[in-house]
Amino acid sequence: MRESKVLVKFRRGEFARFCGMGHFLPFFIRHASYCQYDGIWFDLEHRAMSDREVQSVLALCHLHNIDCMIRPSTREPARLYRYLEDGAAGFMFPFVNNAEIARQLVQATKFPPQGNRGVDGAGLDGDYVIGAWAEGSDYFEEANNQTFILAQIETPEAVENVNEIASVEGIDCLFIGPGDLGRRLSTLPQTISTQGGTSINLDEVIQRVSKAAKEANKAWGITAGSLEALEKYRGMGAQVVPWGGDFALTGVLEKCGQQLDQVLKKNKVEE
Length: 271
Hints:
This protein is of the alpha/beta class. It has a single domain (about 5-245), classed as Alpha-Beta Barrel (TIM Barrel), CATH 3.20.20. The protein has twelve helices and seven strands. It has helices at about 5-10, 25-35, 50-65, 75-85, 100-110, 140-145, 155-160, 160-165, 180-185, 200-215, 225-235, 250-265; strands at about 20, 40-45, 65-70, 90-95, 150-155, 175, 220. A seven-stranded parallel beta sheet has the order 1-2-3-4-5-6-7, sandwiched between helices. Helix 2 (about 25-35) runs parallel beside helix 3 and helix 4 (about 75-85) packs across helix 5. The longest helix is centred in the C-terminal third of the chain and has 18 residues, at about 250-265. It is globular. The termini are far apart.
């Protein structure tokens, strides 16, 4: 069973380097590994991908020894553990609003006794039967020990229940979704209880979530829109702040387009 680079970092209290990918770009995986990222956040919540494309991405992540964390569009157990069988190192689950949802996700993705994941062993994670069913194999224990769950905190309900979510065994990291959460806080400003009944802002939520994670001995993370924000969150103890992704390629195109404009302007041919 492949060792998760992300869990090594989590268990040492270190920062796990993640970049994001939402399209089928095989070269991106190799470059992420070359640039010493620990994991790729593979977004299937907002991006469409065929099953074969997903399998190819997961196989390439194994080839280049980088964790693949899937954000799925489903909580259906069989779909989830098929991602693990195909080689996913872990999940980022959106809208984990309470501890019961968190427990259901652990049940779906961990083998007994920790969960209720279906047994197969014939996928990439079990070395296509060779590893999983070999005499003396510790495949089931290692599968539980080398896969991780990030629970997204992105609603007022999740913030209210953050301590209970953090306490669920099998949840490795609380991950703040500032886009969804910020939108909800701006439109539903008094839906989170506070001392004195005042409204709460995103910075105060981040403090609350990071405190819950620390008390439960769990990692926490968040997205950042600037280098200053990245530095701020890391300074607060965040162990996951994804940085870099395939959409950054648009910046390359923009720069190249501007360079072409300059060249063509200087060398304009009279018609």
